[in-house]
Amino acid sequence: MREKDLIAALGTALGEAAISMIRLSGEGAVELVASIFKPRNKDLDLLKVASHTVTLGYICDDQGDIIDEVLVCVMRAPRTYTREDVVEIFCHGGILPVRSVMDLVLQKGARIAEPGEFTKCAFLNGRIDLAQAEAVLDLIRARSSKGAELACNQLTGKISAGIGKLREELKRVLAQIEAEIDFPEDVDPLPKEERLRRIAVLQERVDLLLKGATLGRIYREGLQTVLVGKPNVGKSTLLNMLLGEERALVTDIPGTTRDLIEEMLVLEGIPLRIVDTAGIRESMGLVESLGIERAKDALEQADLVLALFDVTTGITDDDLVVLHLLHGKKGVVLLNKADLPQKQIDPQTMMEHVGDQFPVIEISSKLGWGQKELADAILNVIGAGHIAGETVLLTRKRHQVALEKVKDRLVSAQIAINGNLPLEFIAVDIWDAWSALGEIIGETLPDEIISSIFSEFCVGK
Ligand SMILES: Nc1nc2c(ncn2[C@@H]2O[C@H](COP(=O)(O)OP(=O)(O)OP(=O)(O)O)[C@@H](O)[C@H]2O)c(=O)[nH]1
Ligand SMILES: [Mg+2]
Questions:
Q1: pLDDT single digits (tens) 57-90
Q2: How many CB atoms lie within 10 A of CB 116?
Q3: Which residues have their alpha-adjacent CB atom under 5 A from ion ligand 2?
Q4: Which residues on neighbouring strands pair with residue 263, listed in sequence order?
Q5: Where is it mainly found (predicted)?
Q6: Which atom of ligand 1 is nearest to the CA of 230?
Q7: Confidence of residue 461 (pLDDT cuts 50, 70, 90)
Q8: I need a surface site. Which of 15, 242, 250, 298 has the fewest CB within 10 A?
């Protein structure tokens, strides 16, 4: 548990703005601010104002000189973000007045808050669970409207409720087993098939959550995507088209792009971290061959490959090299320059080359054809097309790891049941699964991990 300090931090970004807010939380917050605040209405006393009200007045230094004209909002525990007394001071948004008010607050005994400490208080004081605390950060950092929507779902506790329900059901299975162990005379043993069926139902729900977690992570972090293809197929043109700006150099000379260019963009709601690469071919020189090596590395690391082919050239030897590199990867094949009349490749022929792993679509990077089709194809390839809208989506690697553990323990329980092992073995597996689920909402996580999660936050949140 955190030592009972009075913490303070700037809640808004430091810089010139209309308003800047300094937030205090902890016992004595109201008293501290009252000691440096003169209400404009002399009959008012900050110590006596109703909770959750705003008072106009001045912050004054020890000499009684006015530092800033402010609005002060007093919020009494426990109906606050941190569940402690909270005071927010809304200053005029200049750098100097805010700094002076902050200095005064620190001088009067508050200490500067650590990153995410207000949210950590909210977690430690039971106002929100860990998944909800993470959602606060995700909402701040959301890169796409879908990412923000997921963060909101998580923030309002939808995920926590789903996880809670699953844990209750695991508890029920566990309770039955424990009753059979403790009171063998009084409790009828559950038939093996029935026990297996109950676990299989839970396993299915965990699988669904895991599927959703892959998508949830993509929405939070962006899908690592790479553009590959032989020189001159239009990779850089596609990047520029998707970005809506002339980011990468485009010429009709093959070998224009020599180094990786990475950009973040949102395509029909899907956030992509997209890398444009040097065209892949039998290299013409050292710089180009280094560029091609980097392109291959980027391809290795990508979650998704967008492989471009030029419909006007037919499938060339360089294209065969690109096709070879696609083995074992997920991606979409793009037949580019579909606006030109002299077509040498049609989707059907291409599909025979790549198999049904890769959807094949015709586009024109130059004219912007096929964006919607590309977005749909990406969603299908990453398996998002099959996830129902209302499915809960977990968003972090940490969640995914915990779910994998739950899945693993349930499999182990099924093996134990099938092998007629003593009930104690099954009970241990189910208990482990229950506990791994608790990690997601922060009930069964070591303190260091919790601290590292909050250290990602900005100061003042
Ligand atoms: N007609 C037509 N021309 C295109 C299209 N896409 C690209 N081009 C042209 O093809 C040429 C090469 O485009 P780039 O985007 O530079 O190709 P790249 O794949 O990045 O090439 P490298 O960087 O050399 O590997 C340029 O002249 C583009 O204008 C398209 O969809 N239709
Ligand atoms: Mg290029």
A1: 999 999 999 999 999 999 999 999 999 999 999 9
A2: 23
A3: 235-236, 256-257
A4: 274
A5: cytoplasm
A6: 25
A7: confident
A8: 15
Any known ligand binding at 165? no
Return the CATH number of 135-217+393-446, one of 1.10.10.10, 1.20.120.430, 3.40.50.2300, 1.20.210.10: 1.20.120.430
| Number of the ligand 1 atom closest to the C-alpha atom of 227 | 19
| Fold that domain 223-386 belongs to in CATH | Rossmann fold (3.40.50)
For atom 26 of ligand 1, which residue has the closest CA? 252
Among 366, 367, 374, name the best residue to mutate to test ligand 1's pocket (greatest count of ligand atoms within 8 A of Cβ). Answer: 366
Contact indicator for 29, 80 with CB cutoff of 8 Å: no
235 carries a ligand binding annotation: yes
Query: Dihedrals φ, ψ of 188, to 5°?
Result: -70, 130
- Candidate from 263, 309, 321, 365 with most ligand 1 atoms within 8 A of CB, to mutate: 365
How much distance in Å is there from the Cα of 337 to the middle of ligand 1? 8
More confident residue, 326 or 212: 326
Question: What is the Cα gyration radius of the chain?
Answer: 29
* Residue 398 is assigned to a ligand binding site: no
Q: For residues 17-52, b (16+ Cβ closer than 10 Å) or e, as one string?
A: eeebbbbbbbebbbebbbebbebeeeebebeebeee
Domain ranges of the chain: 7-128, 135-217+393-446, 223-386
Ligand 1, CB within 6 Å, residue ranges = 229, 231-237, 250-252, 254-257, 278-279, 336-337, 339-340, 364-366
461 annotated as a binding-site residue: yes
pLDDT of 2 > 50? The answer is: no
Tokens of 155: 């923030």
pLDDT (tens digit per residue) in 248-307: 999 999 999 999 999 999 888 888 999 999 999 987 778 778 888 999 999 999 999 999
Fold of 7-128: Gyrase A; domain 2 (3.30.1360)
